[in-house]
Amino acid sequence: MVDNPCSGTTGNPGAMKIAIAIPARYGSSRFPGKPLAKIGGRTMLERVAAIAKAATVDIKNATVFITTEDRRIESHAKEIGVPCIMTPASCATGSDRVLSALRQLDEWPDFIVNLQGDAPFTPPAVIKTLIKAFIEKDRPEVVTPVHQLSWEDLDRLREAKKKTPFSGTTAVINKEGRALWFSKNILPAIRAEETLREKGDKSPVYQHMGLYGFRSDILEKFCELPQSPYEKLEGLEQLRMLENGIQIQAVKVKIPSGLIRSGIDAPEDIKRAEKMLAAYGDQFP
To answer: Cα(254)–Cα(252) distance, rounded to whole angstroms?
Structure first.
């Protein structure tokens, strides 16, 4: 066990404690050792940790830690100077791993951001937006970011899905920003698309960024629920939340057109990420 990464001084707002947990699993069946794979000369995990640090640099009561089942990742976490909590290989999801790590702490944070270790292109501003939304929207149960796709980005997503159909998730939200559904299919279906394209530069499709901020008690509730039918079909754990009445507040964010918004799911995604870095430059910490 490491020293409590959620302890320490508190700052604004009030005594609320914020933590960013980075679940990083070595034993992926599709991509073993994925967190240690290099993109642009830096490991994926190093990139994700740098993003988390950049997002919390101005928040005095925020902490960052990695949680993993593998000693190789623990060793790398020490190399990059990030606390690491070992958790069982049996953790089924990143959320289960984060909860397992929290249960080793003496004091839980009020709000825990689950920043997946395979999401190295998450802008720090997006994480800051989640934290701000939690504070300003009266502590919602779950907060997650979505981005409205330009027509060009929608075309890129469609092309990417021809090769890796289960990368990239779309979201349907209501006028208050409450998430109604998520899918690996592109939702909604669009009638008269050409007419809509002529009317504006934005499509009606929101892409979900695989990033969640949980009220800590809701994370525990969620992880104790059995897998739900649609979760099993789609492979999306957020559907378990919706199927069990947990409310998810979607927060609209803006990020540069063309940047990857999905995680790295397979080795071929590394090549796509390298091409993105070459085309747009390394815009991340």
So the answer is: 7
